[in-house]
Amino acid sequence: MPGFERPCACDRCGREYIVSGTAANPGNETQILADFACDCGGRVEAMIPGSVNREAVRVLPR
Ligand SMILES: [Zn+2]
Q: How remote is the CA of residue 17 from the centroid of ligand 1, in Å?
């Protein structure tokens, strides 16, 4: 299955992350806004494919 990568940044401290994962149904699917917790307590938001298994998404500092 094809993967995706989305660069994003924390809305509080500006730390940059790469959100990556695998889309179960890539193509013309809807992108959804997902948010993840930064170490500082801020939020990291990224648009990810709607079919992604959220539990399998990786959020890595870059
Ligand atoms: Zn932060």
A: 10
